Amino acid sequence: MTTRREFLIGAGAGLVALGAGKSWSHPPSRWGSSGSSGQYQLELPFAVSTWSHGLAANEAAWTTLQSGRTALDAVETGVRVSEADPEVTSVGCGGHPDRDGHVTLDACIMDQGGNAGSVAFLEGIEHAISVARLVMEKTPHVMLVGEGAREFALANGFPVKDLLTPAAQKSWRKWRETADYQAWPQAADPDPGHDTISMLAVDGFGDMCGACTTSGLPYKMHGRVGDSPIIGAAMFVDNAVGGACATGVGEEVMKTLGSFLIVELMRQGLSPAEACHEAIARIVRRNPRWKDVQVGYLAADKQGRCSAYSIQPGFQFAVMDQTGNRLLDAQSWIRPAAKAQE
Ligand code: GLY
Fold first, then answer.
1. CA of 251 to the centre of ligand 1 (A)
2. C-alpha of residue 8 to centroid of ligand 1, in Å
3. ∠ at Cα 165 (163, 170), nearest 5°?
4. Mean per-residue pLDDT over the chain, rounded
5. Whether the CB of 227 sits within 6 Å of ligand 1
């Protein structure tokens, strides 16, 4: 087992150490085949998640893991932090509304047994991830949408909440002045803390589970559902192999079923770094407008190897194991220097 001090980082990837006095070594990746992708070795158990709001989510997941509970409890508890945070403007309460002013949520969850639950186009219920978990555990189905998902949530005691915060309403009103719907460029905004949270965790039993929750693209068409509730698109876990999850423009993730692809590539022997790189390459190869799109993937295998890769620079991910909680910069298809010259 690799020790914490052997925490590995691939060539060119950046690391932000949180907490005064903390530092980590940066030897070359043991696994990066091309040197083009950063890969990290985590100790088990661990929690990893997308964007800077993943740090707070990881903390909650970690507390759950430390109390001896399961990875399923950990990922649910973790992403609920983002769902409840009004400052996180693309998840749960505080999420950007659609073009008609409705905050509609998508979420999915998967356990170590390959069971899955999801909700889509859910309105007025803050913790979409917990509704998704109940769909998995209490129904014979995988997905509930819209009014049916809401009725199911209400029947199971979830409180109704107005998720449109004053700040999100103000932004939406300003957007309506022009109503310029540029889904891709908006989604390509690399501003951290403003996108889907996806999380993977391995617990003390060695089991991996995953979760994903979002309010989706800002000012999307009413009724639009993204990748986040689609099992295999935004998130997929195979407890024999590992897991992967996504953030960014959901349409591109759905068309390539990226998370399933990454897990299958890992099953065939690719490292998480190589698998994430290939999933991004599939989007770049098939979409002539790829330069306008941001998609980021985060993957980890059951041995604790973890990596992330995106199209645009700026995608960050948070990793937590017994040695700490760190925010890392993913490597990207478009290099930061090239972006700066645009
Ligand atoms: N990835 C979130 C969405 O496209 O809705």
1. 7
2. 30
3. 135
4. 87
5. yes
Which CATH architecture is the domain 41-341 placed in? 4-Layer Sandwich (3.60)
Ligand 1 pocket member 228 (CB < 6 A)? yes
Q: In a mutational test of the pocket of ligand 1, which residue from 91, 217, 222, 294 has the highest number of ligand atoms less than 8 Å from its CB?
A: 217
> Cα-flanking dihedrals φ and ψ of residue 247, to 5°?
-150, 160
Give strand pairing partners of 48: 200, 319
C-alpha 127, offset from chain centre? 16
Burial class (CB in 10 A: 0-12, 13-18, 19+), 336: middle
The answer to whether the pTM exceeds 0.85 is: yes
130 Cβ below 6 A of ligand 1: no
Asked if residue 45 has a cis previous peptide bond (ω within 30° of 0), the answer is yes
pLDDT digits (tens, 9 = 90+) for 185-228: 554 455 543 589 999 999 999 999 999 999 999 999 999 999 99
Task: Give the pLDDT score at 37.
Answer: 52
Select from 144, 142, 285 the least CA-distant residue to 225: 144
Q: Which of 129, 196, 225 to mutate to test ligand 1, by most ligand atoms within 8 A of the CB atom?
A: 196
Give the ligand 1 atom nearest the CA of 250: 4
**Residue pLDDT, tens place only, 149-186:** 999 999 999 999 999 999 999 999 998 998 776 655 55
Give CA 27 to chain center in angstroms: 27
CB 40 within 8 A of CB 309: no
Positions marked active-site? 196
> Is residue 107 a contact partner of residue 229, using CB atoms and an 8 Å limit?
yes
CA atoms within 13 A on the CB side of 189: 13
Atom of ligand 1 nearest to the CA of 234: 1
What pLDDT score does 88 carry?
93
Inform me whether the pLDDT recorded for 22 exceeds 80: no
Distance from Cα 149 to the centre of ligand 1, integer Å: 19
Distance in Å, CA 229 to ligand 1 centroid: 9
**Per-residue pLDDT at 195:** 82
